[in-house]
């Protein structure tokens, strides 16, 4: 059997007011090589001792969730996506598993079916849809059905502040309230709606300020990511708008033109922030499978 190579892009979720709905794929990749059949699942990686190397690995769990009859194989993972940093690291493993099961099992799953399975595993659709479709995605999941659509965002770039320590999604979600103020919910919903509309019309400059001012999750997570306000304030001083908390954090993203983000990065590098600053382009292709 020829080796199967699955490549999945990193993704950023929420984009401010688009809680569990908006996602953006980046040219930062998680690659899985499917090698020979084995008697038991074996996952080779250099991701640390906390990531299982057997059937408990999230890739394998996602393969078996998609098709429990898939025979064990040896898998090798090569990843540039930091774990537990709000860049969809768990999603990359989930999507890789779905793609592998689809290929090995000759399932011929549609894109919609793959997004539904991934949403069921993750509990929300935006990272999964962005990783599968690429670009900027709008999505919804009601616990049964997932619907997603992509908007071309190829001209967009992002400056990502990536802190060395991670935050688990479970820990971050524990910061969220059980209920929201009605007016805050309406405001966040309307801002997300206008952001999507303007992006679909190619009015990026008008759309990006709407990423800010979220009421859904950022106010409750800011305490664990104090750099959010620092970066946003510096960006505003340079007339750059579009800074947000990526996913559950602790990564902070700022969207915009690459030339502007290069200047912002230079300014932030003078501030001795405890993290790295990477400019990422938008992935417009989504997850790919080669060698079938």
Automatic annotation (TrEMBL):
PANTHER family: HOMOSERINE KINASE (PTHR20861:SF1), HOMOSERINE/4-DIPHOSPHOCYTIDYL-2-C-METHYL-D-ERYTHRITOL KINASE (PTHR20861). Belongs to the GHMP kinase family. Homoserine kinase subfamily. GO terms for cellular component: cytoplasm. Its EC number is 2.7.1.39. Its main location: cytoplasm. It is found in: Cytoplasm. Residues 63-134 form the GHMP kinase N-terminal domain. GO terms for molecular function: ATP binding; homoserine kinase activity. It is an enzyme of class 2 (transferase). It catalyses: L-homoserine + ATP = O-phospho-L-homoserine + ADP + H(+). InterPro entries: GHMP_kinase_C_dom (IPR013750), GHMP_kinase_C_sf (IPR036554), GHMP_kinase_N_dom (IPR006204), Homoserine_kinase (IPR000870), Ribosomal_Su5_D2-typ_SF (IPR020568), Ribsml_uS5_D2-typ_fold_subgr (IPR014721). This is Homoserine kinase. The gene is thrB. Pfam families: GHMP_kinases_C (PF08544), GHMP_kinases_N (PF00288). It comes from the Bacteria. Residues 214-269 form the GHMP kinase C-terminal domain. Keywords: Amino-acid biosynthesis, ATP-binding, Cytoplasm, Kinase, Nucleotide-binding, Threonine biosynthesis, Transferase. One of its GO terms (biological process) is threonine biosynthetic process. Catalyzes the ATP-dependent phosphorylation of L-homoserine to L-homoserine phosphate.
């Amino acid at each position: 059997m020829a080796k199967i190579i699955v490549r999945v892009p990193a993704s950023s979720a929420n984009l401010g007011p688009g809680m569990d709905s908006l996602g953006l794929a980046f040219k930062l990749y998680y690659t899985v090589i499917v090698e020979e059949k084995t008697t038991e699942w074996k996952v080779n990686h250099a991701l640390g001792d906390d990531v299982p190397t057997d059937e408990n690995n999230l890739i394998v769990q996602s393969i078996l969730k998609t098709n429990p009859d898939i025979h064990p194989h040896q898998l090798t993972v090569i990843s540039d996506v930091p774990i537990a940093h709000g860049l969809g690291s768990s999603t990359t493993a989930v999507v890789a598993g779905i793609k592998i099961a689809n290929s090995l099992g000759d399932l011929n799953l549609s894109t919609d079916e793959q997004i539904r399975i991934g949403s069921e595993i993750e509990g929300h659709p935006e990272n999964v849809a962005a990783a599968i479709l690429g670009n900027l995605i709008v999505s919804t999941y009601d616990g049964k059905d997932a619907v997603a659509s992509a908007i071309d965002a190829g001209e967009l770039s992002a400056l990502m502040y990536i802190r060395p320590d991670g935050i688990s999604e479970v820990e971050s979600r524990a910061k969220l309230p059980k209920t929201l103020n009605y007016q805050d919910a309406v405001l966040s919903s309307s801002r997300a709606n206008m952001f999507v509309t303007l992006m679909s019309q190619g009015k990026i400059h008008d759309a990006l300020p709407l990423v800010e001012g979220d009421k859904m999750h950022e106010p409750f997570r800011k305490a664990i990511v104090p750099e959010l306000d620092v970066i946003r304030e510096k960006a505003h001083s340079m007339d750059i708008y579009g800074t947000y908390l990526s996913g559950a954090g602790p990564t902070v993203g700022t969207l915009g033109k690459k030339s502007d983000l290069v200047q912002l990065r230079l300014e932030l590098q003078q501030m001795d922030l405890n993290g790295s600053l990477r400019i990422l382009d938008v992935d417009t292709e989504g997850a790919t499978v080669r060698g079938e």
